[in-house]
Design goal:
mainly alpha; two-stranded antiparallel ribbon; 15 helices; 4 strands
Length: about 425
């Protein structure tokens, strides 16, 4: 995609096998080695030995699982894969032993996705273009973090109804601590949740199903925006570029001239492909969620009824289609129905998007560069940053607001009405 903008009158956009080899050997592998050594120094196990039996203080025997955890953690976090060596994921003390490793793991999740914006700027010969894309990502991330943290710090209205003390005190952090790892508290858990859903990593240090309706709805919304808030290594950048193409097209319609971006005229073919790519994930999420919500085989997997049950379905397909992998744990997805439909969601979210994106890249690479004129829209300043942010939010709201209203928003208002 970056080469599509960087090349002029080109016939190709590169060799995928050469890119794969270079990225693996010269970027991923060296960074993973260094990061694995750091995690091991902080207490994350790194051994090929099997589990060990230990005697507890009560005199019982306990089996402690071990393995090459540090190297697997570095790979899963840096590559945007997610999951965990242990079932508790990054809440487990062997995967995430200290507050320092908690911050370090979040840094790894964002490292490549954020750095690629600068790579893009360098490739097109103007680093300010990369900064503007990163600026849009930062604005969207900050909005999401504020919503998640404030929702969790405000506490759970159901707990307040039961008379449970959720105030900040000398003996407790306060807020909604259900499903949180006490070592990290509200702030560390909210930040990690926002990072992992703004990317496509899926590693978690808290149970998202235990978040408040607004907190859980916000991390769900992060994935619904095609994960353009940094996103996975590579896909976050091209996702943001798709929104940039739509943004300059809308701006061009406003002023009555052919839209341009980085010296390339954006015409109907590119806009059609961009819209097609941006519709794949929403269509997959909404269609499969609606199917699961009406079929007995889909409803059978729900632990909770009502809006929260619908949120569990919506989160599952959002996570699968947006290449994330985290879950609302109240859903029993280990059935034939969910194995097949979630696999279909992953297939569509990963591979159907690639076709129109490559078509755009090839089309742009073949175009000649148009000189900058007085009517050219500046794309390297705050005006363009907020134009992209507005495009992302408007498209996301128009697409998913009805579904969110049936799930997290309905649950939120019903909870406070009961309170």
């Amino acid at each position: 995609m970056a080469r599509g903008f960087a090349r002029h009158s080109g016939e190709t956009i590169g060799n995928a096998w050469v890119d794969l080899t270079r990225a693996t050997l010269y970027v991923l592998l060296p960074i993973c080695v260094i990061c694995a050594l750091f995690l091991a120094s902080q207490g994350v196990p790194q051994t090929l030995a099997g589990p060990v039996n230990v005697s507890t203080l009560e005199g019982a025997t306990q089996v402690i699982a071990r393995g090459p955890v540090a190297s697997q953690e570095a790979i899963k976090l840096l590559s945007g894969d997610g999951g965990g060596f242990f079932n508790a994921n990054s809440a487990h003390p062997f995967e995430n032993p200290t507050a320092l490793t908690n911050v370090f793991e979040m840094l790894l999740i964002f490292l490549i996705g954020a750095a690629l914006t600068n790579t893009f700027g360098r490739m097109v010969g103007d680093e300010r273009q990369g900064w503007s894309l990163l600026g849009a990502m930062v604005v969207l991330f900050a909005v999401g973090l504020c919503v998640v943290y404030s929702a969790e710090a405000s506490g759970n209205p159901h707990f307040a109804k039961l008379g449970i003390d959720q105030a900040v005190g000398s003996l407790q952090a306060g807020g909604n601590m259900e499903g949180k790892e006490v070592r990290f508290g509200i702030a560390g858990s909210a930040l990690f949740a926002n990072v992992t859903t703004a990317s496509s990593d899926g590693a978690v240090n808290a149970m998202h199903d235990s978040f408040t309706p607004l907190g859980g709805g916000m991390v769900m919304a992060n994935m619904m925006m095609d994960e353009v808030i940094v996103g996975a290594p590579g896909s976050g950048l091209f996702g943001m570029l798709l929104f940039a193409l739509v943004a300059v097209f809308i701006a061009g319609l406003m002023v009555g001239r052919t839209p341009e971006y980085l010296g390339k005229k954006i015409q109907s073919a590119e806009v059609k492909m961009a819209v097609l790519a941006l519709l794949v994930v929403p269509a997959t999420i909404l269609v499969l969620t609606s199917v699961a919500a009406i079929l007995p085989s889909g409803l059978a997997g729900l632990t909770n009824a009502g809006p929260h049950g619908f949120s569990e379905l919506l989160y599952a397909y959002s996570s699968a289609a947006a290449t994330n992998g985290s879950a609302f744990a109240g859903l029993n997805a280990n059935t034939i129905f969910f194995n097949l439909t979630l696999a279909l969601a992953m297939l569509c979210g990963r591979f159907l998007v690639i076709v129109p994106v490559l078509a755009i890249a090839g089309s742009l690479a073949a175009k000649v560069k148009v000189p900058v004129s007085a009517g050219t829209l500046p794309t390297d300043g705050m005006q363009f940053v907020f134009l992209i942010v507005g495009t992302v939010l408007i498209l996301g709201a128009l697409t998913f607001f009805p579904a969110l209203a049936l799930g997290p928003l309905a649950e939120h208002y019903s909870a406070y009405q009961l309170h």
